[in-house]
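Hypothesis: this fold can be encoded by more than one sequence.
Test: take the structure tokens below, design a sequence, compare later.
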């Protein structure tokens, strides 16, 4: 069990000498005796204005040491933003081996500390052999330059003027090719912006660049797409003649990241020739001024009510732009031509779309009728055709479609074709296939959905690919039309959300984003497949589908609790599938009474769970967890771990329940030379019993006092629920180690807490809780001597692929009216399996 230790106070270390070069630049030398403390702080020295700063050297274990410059904001000076360049040099007795790193950062009261992570290896600062210790001291030189600046901003949230004056720019000109100067941050619309000044040198010349940057926009809320469309002007002010100001106009959609196709930076890298900037009135008395004029459109972009019972391949969006006439007037005054405004990005079937409007002409004048109080609203309905196109007899034959070997076959499958036949808008729909070549002709198949409901399939010939064959050469073809068959089922799957982790491994299928990889297969057969992680409460997504779903797929790792009440309301429900093993979350008696079938992918993750149990046994026996947490706290105390660490050899281990998982566990424990015992309703297969050497214990209460380690491998039933209560735990050997990956409800929750607290249980480990997910105040999270985790033992990638394949197999059998493998049934058409009776 981990415990929090009281942080150690850290004081000032060593001495610092400062050479002030100007009011805003200084060279500081920090020297201190070699020290193994995890954090060292220099004496304070002047930063800028009324503020001091100090150096902080922080060591993270033996991996690396980080060096930071920390500005000491006080109760008197609580605000202020400062841009500073600092270069750290770790001196070596051999000057050529001195280590230097530099950085430019902006300091604020919220971010007072900036620096270099992984600046040096900690052992190099304590071992004289590396040369960084001489005269028994470590010496660090800091070259510090602080920008003197003036910043002003006027306007409201949709329109601003920002003026940024750099008053000592010469301190930074030698580094502008490597670093950029960044202004204080400001918010406009929903984004956070900064002005960036940078110098660019290439074969064509030397230039000063000016940019607008939005990378600090908050993207922590992954469910909220933060973006705004802006029109802005960047200007370098000529301080001798305003008519010589150099400016450029820009426009575009900005966001915090560019993975959505939005800009995070826009400007002109060659805004002004550097020699002209220095000598033509732009730089006066070491001072330069930059001005930004920025305007943001006020908008609301939302997903409207679904159309055609919205599917993966359809969507509907509304885009509302306020003060649109005012925006058009601004464009007219600035003489901006050819501008287009793009909406936020949205996806349909993994294809990206935007709405684009060109604010010109008279279409959106107040008299046109398309505006409402200076607001326009645009609507977009997107419906994508989900199609498969195959060329050649061999490819077409693979999908089971008959082919004529005397000719050539072309296969065009339209899976959501029915949605395109909607005639409510009074328009006949024509759908055309991709082009294909046959007989030197460019051809396409077509389908016409007429207003009277007639569907016509035809072949369209475009211009010939080569010379026309002439009227005397007939082109024969046969066009077959296949529509969706009746019997479509509604399947609902409940999984956890994986977020960004779903993209890290294509085989990570047990999540909402992948849905066990079943979507394409199910929808290709005309079935509806809905996945969600929202399963709790009367207004959850699952509740919306309970009345009309036919099949419910759940997992033990994010269980949807199928209660008697839910079963009663599920009028169409016929099949409950567990993707994996375990049905603790299903009211089996209610399912049986309703005549349902309940099945699992038996054996799909037994290897994963058995391996996990071996791991947990070793972690408890070797006292691993306290040792690990000791190291992470920066401590080193072998005695505190070794006094309670043992070998697994010669220990007595008993499994309560065997089954497939217990059998694999016993096989894996055989090489450890343990005394193996087991308790179950029936004895194991004699061959497995001889192989493992495990001895059968008919009386559970007689077995428990013999065991140093107990592993729970019995399923949850009415007989096993709460079987390890206070009285049964008291029958175990003092200090017993318990591993439970079977079911949290088999254990009396408070009895386990009391046992761990008193020492009756020497260690408890597992990945099953009751309920799941476990609430934050679940007492097992905070009891001593545990190594609990979330429910992960059976969720390895290998196991996911096995139970995804098993789930698909059972669905396929269900659609065909075939039997499942016998071992997969928990309830078969209303009859409980024997072990659950």
């Amino acid at each position: 069990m981990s415990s929090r230790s009281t942080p150690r106070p850290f004081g000032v270390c060593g001495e610092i000498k400062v050479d002030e070069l100007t009011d805003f630049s200084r060279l500081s030398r920090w020297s201190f005796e070699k020290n193994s403390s995890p954090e060292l702080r220099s004496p304070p020295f002047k930063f800028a204005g009324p503020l001091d700063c100090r150096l902080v050297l922080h060591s993270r274990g033996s991996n690396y040491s980080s060096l930071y410059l920390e500005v000491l904001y006080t109760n008197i000076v609580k605000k202020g933003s400062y841009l500073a360049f600092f270069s750290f040099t770790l001196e070596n007795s051999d000057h050529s081996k001195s280590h230097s790193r530099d950085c430019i950062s902006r300091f604020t009261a919220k971010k007072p500390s900036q620096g270099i992570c992984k600046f040096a290896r900690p052992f190099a600062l304590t071992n004289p052999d590396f040369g960084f210790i001489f005269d028994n001291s470590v010496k660090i030189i800091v070259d510090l330059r602080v920008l003197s600046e003036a910043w002003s901003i006027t306007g409201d949230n949709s329109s601003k003027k920002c003026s940024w004056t750099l008053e000592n720019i010469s301190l930074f000109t030698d580094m502008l090719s490597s670093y950029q100067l960044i202004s204080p941050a400001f918010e406009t619309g929903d984004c956070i912006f900064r002005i960036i000044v940078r110098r660019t040198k290439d074969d064509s010349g030397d230039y000063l660049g000016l940019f607008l940057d939005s990378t600090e926009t908050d993207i922590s809320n992954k469910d909220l797409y933060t973006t705004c469309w802006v029109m802005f002007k960047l200007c370098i002010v000529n301080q001798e003649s305003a008519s010589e100001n150099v400016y450029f106009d820009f426009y575009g959609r900005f966001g915090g990241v560019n993975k959505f196709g939005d800009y995070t930076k826009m400007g002109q890298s060659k805004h002004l020739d550097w020699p002209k900037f220095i000598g033509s009135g732009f730089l006066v008395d070491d001072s330069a001024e930059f001005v930004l004029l920025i305007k943001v459109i006020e908008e609301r972009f939302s997903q409207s009510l679904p159309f055609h019972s919205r599917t993966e391949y359809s969507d509907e969006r509304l885009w509302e732009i306020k003060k649109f006439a005012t925006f058009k007037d601004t464009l007219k005054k600035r003489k901006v031509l050819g501008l287009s405004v793009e909406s936020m990005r949205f996806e349909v079937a993994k294809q990206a779309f935007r709405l684009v409007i060109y604010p010109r002409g008279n279409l959106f004048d107040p008299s046109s009728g398309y505006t409402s109080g200076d607001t326009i609203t645009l609507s977009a309905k997107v419906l994508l055709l989900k199609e498969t196109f195959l060329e050649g007899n061999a490819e077409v034959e693979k999908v089971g479609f008959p082919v004529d070997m005397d000719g050539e076959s072309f296969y065009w499958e339209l899976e959501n074709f029915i949605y395109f036949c909607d005639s409510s808008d009074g328009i006949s729909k024509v759908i055309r296939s991709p082009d294909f070549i046959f007989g030197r002709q460019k051809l396409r198949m077509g389908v016409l959905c007429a207003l009277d409901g007639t569907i016509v399939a035809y072949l369209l010939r475009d211009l010939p690919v080569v010379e026309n064959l002439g009227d005397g050469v007939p082109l024969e073809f046969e066009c077959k039309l296949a529509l969706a068959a009746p019997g479509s089922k509604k399947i609902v799957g409940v999984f956890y959300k994986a977020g960004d982790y779903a993209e890290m491994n294509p085989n990570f299928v047990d999540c909402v984003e992948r849905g066990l990889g079943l979507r394409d297969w199910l929808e290709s057969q005309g079935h509806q497949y809905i996945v969600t992680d929202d399963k709790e409460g009367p207004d959850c997504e699952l509740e919306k589908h309970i009345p009309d779903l036919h099949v419910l797929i759940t997992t033990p790792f994010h269980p949807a609790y199928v209660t008697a009440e839910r079963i009663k309301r599920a009028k169409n429900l016929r099949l409950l599938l567990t993707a994996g093993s375990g049905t603790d979350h299903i009211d089996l008696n209610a399912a049986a009474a309703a005549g349902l079938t309940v099945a699992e992918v038996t054996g799909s993750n037994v290897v994963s769970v058995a391996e996990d149990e071996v791991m947990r046994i070793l972690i408890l026996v070797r006292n691993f967890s306290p040792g690990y947490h000791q190291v992470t706290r920066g401590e080193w105390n072998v005695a505190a771990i070794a006094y309670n660490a043992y070998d697994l050899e010669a220990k007595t281990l008993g499994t309560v329940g065997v089954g497939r998982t217990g059998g694999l566990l016993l096989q894996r424990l055989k090489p450890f030379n343990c005394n193996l015992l087991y308790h179950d309703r029936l004895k194991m297969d004699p061959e497995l019993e001889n192989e493992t050497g495990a001895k059968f214990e008919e009386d559970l209460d007689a077995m428990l006092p013999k065991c140093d380690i107990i592993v729970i491998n019995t399923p949850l039933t009415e007989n096993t629920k709460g079987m390890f209560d206070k009285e049964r735990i008291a029958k175990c050997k003092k200090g017993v180690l318990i591993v439970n990956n079977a079911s949290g409800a088999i254990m009396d929750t408070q009895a386990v807490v009391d046992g761990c607290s008193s020492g009756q249980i020497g260690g408890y480990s597992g990945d099953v809780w009751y309920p799941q997910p476990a609430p934050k105040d679940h007492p097992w999270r905070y009891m001593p001597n545990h190594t609990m985790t979330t429910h992960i033992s059976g969720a390895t990638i290998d196991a996911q692929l096995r139970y995804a394949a098993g789930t698909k197999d059972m669905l396929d059998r269900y659609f065909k009216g075939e039997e499942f493998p016998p071992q997969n049934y928990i309830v078969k058409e209303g009859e409980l399996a024997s072990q659950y009776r």
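The two ends are 39 Å apart (CA to CA). The chain has a mean pLDDT of 86.
Hypothesis status: open.
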